[in-house]
Structures are given as C-alpha cells and as structure tokens.
Amino acid sequence: MRIGQGVDAHRLVPDRDLILGGVHIDFTEGLAAHSDGDVLLHAISDALLGAAGAGDIGQHFPDTDDAYAGIDSRILLRQVASHLREGGWRVVNVDATVIAQRPKLQPYLELMTANIAGDLGVGIGQVNLKATTMEWMGFTGRGEGIAATAVAMIGDA
C-alpha cells in the first residue's frame, strides 16, 4: 500500500464555467486555468500520481502543451487511472476536500463522487468528498478562488 497527497488552487474569474468533480456548477464565475480548471480532479490526480511515485499532473499534462488547452479534467483523471493500472497499481480509496466560501457545493457532491468513482473504475464507497469554507479567511474565504486537497491510497493490482 502507498499513499499520496495532492493540492490545487485556482482563482475565480468571470466568463468561465465552474467545473468541480466533472460537474458544471451553477455560479457566476469559473476557475482560471489552462485546462477546465477542475481543482478537485487536479488534486486527486496529483494524490494518485504521488502515491505511485509518478510525479504530478504538471509533468504529465503540461500547461505549455496546447493539446491540454481547455481539456476536460475527467479525461486527465482517466489517463492517470490508466497509468496506475499499467504500473501494476489499483486505487484503494480517495478522500478529498474542496475549499470554497461560495458557492455551496453540498448539492453537487453525490454526482461528483459518482463521476470520480466511475473515472477511476472503483466503487462509490471508495471515494469520499467533502466541502468546507474558510470562514471568510484567506483567498478562498474572500471568494477569490477555490482550492482542493486530496489523499489517495493505492495497492498492488
């Protein structure tokens, strides 16, 4: 068994869709990024790659490569899962937290969980998601951006 952790954050900007966990969130702003900006899937991808000792998503999907401009982060997560399987690993579980003062994310967590479990090829019970605020402190508390943290455990396939 091996464990990895991941963190990602992006600032909120107008004229972008907000996508978290592969779900379009009804909100007035989205996350600035080379890809779709899905900080939750980026943090999970980094946690999985870290557990496998395989670097991070920036190494695998660099923001200097136009092939990844605007890409759906679910595609990247599925590629990470495939990379793990090819390396002889299986996902044991993922636990992640989205940090955002707004919008409220509780209504979307079930669909996000289903997306992530499906993309990783694991059961719903192997993915745990949470959402929290920073009680108006820091960049997430001021509504300037959204962050996510994740831990993942992998084991031999």
TrEMBL record:
2-C-methyl-D-erythritol 2,4-cyclodiphosphate synthase domain residues are: 1-154
Q: In which pathway does it act?
A: Isoprenoid biosynthesis; isopentenyl diphosphate biosynthesis via DXP pathway; isopentenyl diphosphate from 1-deoxy-D-xylulose 5-phosphate: step 4/6
Q: Which domain of life is it from?
A: Bacteria
Kindly list any coiled-coil regions of this protein. none
Keywords per UniProt: Isoprene biosynthesis, Lyase, Metal-binding
Record's function text: Involved in the biosynthesis of isopentenyl diphosphate (IPP) and dimethylallyl diphosphate (DMAPP), two major building blocks of isoprenoid compounds. Catalyzes the conversion of 4-diphosphocytidyl-2-C-methyl-D-erythritol 2-phosphate (CDP-ME2P) to 2-C-methyl-D-erythritol 2,4-cyclodiphosphate (ME-CPP) with a corresponding release of cytidine 5-monophosphate (CMP).
The record places the site described as Transition state stabilizer at 34, 133
Q: Which residues bind 4-CDP-2-C-methyl-D-erythritol 2-phosphate per the record?
A: 8-10, 34-35, 56-58, 61-65, 132-135, 139, 142
User: Which family does the UniProt entry place this protein in?
Assistant: Belongs to the IspF family.
Q: Which organism is it from?
A: Spiribacter insolitus
| Pfam families registered for this protein in UniProt | YgbB
- Membrane-crossing segments per the record: none
Q: How is the cofactor bound?
A: Binds 1 divalent metal cation per subunit.
The protein's matches in CDD domains, at most eight in alphabetical order, are given as: MECDP_synthase
Name the record gives this protein? 2-C-methyl-D-erythritol 2,4-cyclodiphosphate synthase
The reaction(s) catalysed by this protein are:
4-CDP-2-C-methyl-D-erythritol 2-phosphate = 2-C-methyl-D-erythritol 2,4-cyclic diphosphate + CMP
Names of the cofactor(s): a divalent metal cation
Residues binding a divalent metal cation, per UniProt: 8, 10, 42
- What EC number(s) is this enzyme filed under? 4.6.1.12
Task: State whether it acts alone or in a complex, and with which partners, per the record.
Answer: Homotrimer.
The record's PANTHER family line, in alphabetical order, gives: 2-C-METHYL-D-ERYTHRITOL 2,4-CYCLODIPHOSPHATE SYNTHASE, CHLOROPLASTIC (PTHR43181)
Annotated GO MF terms: 2-C-methyl-D-erythritol 2,4-cyclodiphosphate synthase activity
